[in-house]
Amino acid sequence: MRMRILVGIVLVVSCLFWVNVNLGSAEEKVIINGIDANFPPFAYVDKNGNPDGFDVKSVDWIAKEMGFKVKHQPMDWDGIIPSLNAKKIDMIASGLSVTDERKKQVAYTIPYWVIKQVLVVKNDSDLTPETALANGNKIGVQRGTSEAKWMEENLIKKEGKDFELVYYDSAPLSVEDVLNGRIVAAAMDDAPANDAVSKKPVKIIGGFGMHDEEFAYAVRQDDADLLNTLNEGLKKLMASPEWEELQKQYDLKQ
Amino acid sequence: MTEGFVAVINALPYMLKGSLVTIGVVFGAMGLGLSLGVPLAVGLVYGPGWLRKIIGFYVWFFRGVPLLVLLFLFYFGLFSWMGINFSAFSAGTIVLGLISAAYQSQIFRGAMLSLPEGQLKAARALGMSDVKAILFIILPQALRLSVPGWSNEYSIVLKDSAVTYALGVAEIMARTHFVASRTYQHLPLYIAAGMMYLLMTYIGVKGLRILEKNVRIPGYSY
Q1: Are the beta carbons of A40 and A195 closer than 8 angstroms?
Q2: Can you tell me the ipTM of this complex?
Q3: Which of B27, B94, B170 sits opposite A13 (nearest CB)?
């Protein structure tokens, strides 16, 4: 009898596994938008666990206007472009900046936002961008971002500045480590930096010489249909009063 | 601190839903590990030399490569190359299951080897085929003996499931990170996440302890 119970448990557990797999793969065909949910105010998850943010709401508007269904898939930033090309997701609308390097791998829509790169330090710090990026200081940056690459190539390799880059999984984690004192400053886009300033005792001390960047959505290079749809939708959105509303709602200033 | 407490309370329903995802990954992985691990162990103990070599290679590979490497290798590489579009959840579960099968095969192998050899000979002498003897004499005893090792494996798989967050599986760890990014309450939220894992380990190990007691044959020794 007990043996039967044991065998039963074994069978049930095995069955559960296959049910899981089937539930996982049986999905309705919708456009899947990959987001870095650690990137407020452009993309994050709200109190109820639903994707929210400036980019999320913009894409929702475009989807409604252009007549397609969209699902926002939070994922790790490191894997977001490989995921796009492996067809795990269909588009990226998550504060993705346009770079030449990425242009080789993805197709961009028209740019919709201009972003500045800034340094964030503790409130009581007297560092300036010049003194922060010197003296062997440790500077935090999110792994896999355009600013990380730019700082490595230009400031450290070309200009030979004496500071060390420390890599983080997300911008908020680097801010946390500024507060912990492990790094003196964190480099990031100005919008998430403003978000951090509104929630933590940190301040922005200015840029570090990196050119302004543009944000755009990205799709696979062979996905011309979706690219056209998104471009058309973006143009409509940016021409509508809703665009201003969204900026106000997410406290974004151009 | 009250701020952090409020953040945890607000995030709790969302994080608890993540624990369901974690449970799904763990059950799937343990189930796959079990349904592959038992035949692997039988092959290792009773199989011909070539089969033992193949299984040995499998075990060596899945025990030797770090979990994160395997996750990336399968999710972005192998599965895509094979043209199978698994979701992050399925891919994470399968990879954890394949790894667990390697470890579980060793648990079952150890249990089988601990049984006296004479049992198989006695079964043959009674006219049972080898397959029958393994199914009805060896495995029922070996599986009972494996429960303690299996509960160890459960707690390992449970904790390893947190790594699937790198693929974008919305389990406890990923959700904690998302909420922390919005609220900037990292410490209280990660403490809450840690407590959820502790609780799940406690419940699972306790349940397996009860199972262990229930399937034990009283007064039986080898």
Answers
A1: yes
A2: 0.76
A3: B27
* CATH number of the domain residue B128 falls in: 1.10.3720.10
Cβ proximity of A90 and A219 under 8 Å = yes
pTM (global) more than 0.90: no
Q: Is residue B214 part of a domain?
A: no
Cα dihedral B39, B40, B44, B49 sign: positive
> A74 and chain B: CB distance < 8 Å anywhere?
yes
For residue A19, being part of any structural domain is answered with: no
Domain containing B67 equals: 20-170
Min distance A20 CA to chain B CA atoms (Å): 7
- Structural domain count of chain B: 1
Domain range for A125 = 117-211
> Is the residue at A59 inside a domain?
yes
Cα separation of B5 and A16, whole Å? 36
Whether A37 and A89 map to the same domain: the answer is: yes
Between the alpha carbon of residue A140 and those of residues A60, A133, B56, B138, the distances in Å are 33, 11, 44, 57
> Tens digit of pLDDT per residue, chain A (254 long)?
555 665 666 666 666 555 555 454 444 469 999 999 999 999 999 988 899 999 999 999 999 999 999 999 998 888 899 999 988 899 999 999 999 999 999 999 999 999 999 999 999 999 999 999 999 999 999 998 999 999 999 999 999 999 999 999 999 999 999 999 999 999 999 999 999 999 999 999 999 999 999 999 999 999 999 999 999 999 999 999 999 999 999 989 87
Taking an 8 Å cut-off on Cβ atoms, the answer to whether A47 and B14 are in contact is: yes
- Pairwise CB contact (< 8 Å): A24 & B90: yes
CA of A179: which chain B residue's CA is closest? Answer: B184
In a domain, A9, yes or no: no
Yes or no, beta carbons of A13 and B30 under 8 Å apart: yes
| Residue B88 near residue B94, CB atoms below 8 Å | no
**Contact residues on chain B for A49, CB-CB shorter than 8 A:** 13-14, 17, 175
User: Does some domain include residue A104?
Assistant: yes
Give the C-alpha separation, A139 to A52, whole Å: 29
What sign results for the dihedral spanned by CA atoms A64, A67, A69, A70? negative
Alpha helices by DSSP H, listed for B161-185, are: 172-183
CA-to-CA distance for B28 and B96, rounded, in angstroms? 9
- Do A89 and A124 have their domain in common? no
Q: For B57, how many CA atoms within 13 A lie in the half-sphere containing its CB? A: 5
**What's the token pair of residue A218?**
């990205």
